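Database export, one record per block. Field names are fixed; values are copied verbatim from the stored entry.
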Amino acid sequence: MSVPNTEQQFKDVMAECRELFAKKLHDYGASWRILRPSSLTDQLFIKAKRIRSLEITGQSLVGEGMRPEFIALINYGIVGLVQLEKGFTDSVDLTVDEALALYDGHAKEAYELMIKKNHDYGEAWRAMRVSSYTDFILTKIQRVKELEDLQGAALVSEGVDANYMDIINYAVFGAIRLKS
């Protein structure tokens, strides 16, 4: 039995996410640019709560499983990083190419962070339950809500960007585990 290659699996999931992101950009443009931080946080919350509901009940009435929701968390996490970088607007102000370039930059940052943490933690994520990723993501979302409410007055905490990066990485792990 071959040992799974985390770096390649991560890249494969991110390529799948980017492809979906590009297709949605084609269909909708960068309409997400109008999302204020609190609305984006709520969108992440909805996706993570749906995963948790599916884990607990085992039932999906809309026919989609958990993996597409992890993919959505990855893409919305990257959107969140773009919004932090550029701020929200009242109209779409990015071309498809500009949006994809921003996406690629933040996806690369998430990958680089995963490499560092995966080295330090010795691939501990492989022994975790997928439901733990969900709980950690929900915890990170709650932290983002608290940080938003503090309006930048946090004392010692990591910023919203660090929480988005962790959400992305836990969601990639979930997508990897659910593909196997």
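Remark 1: The mean pLDDT is 93.
Remark 2: The chain is about 75% helix and 0% strand.
End of record.
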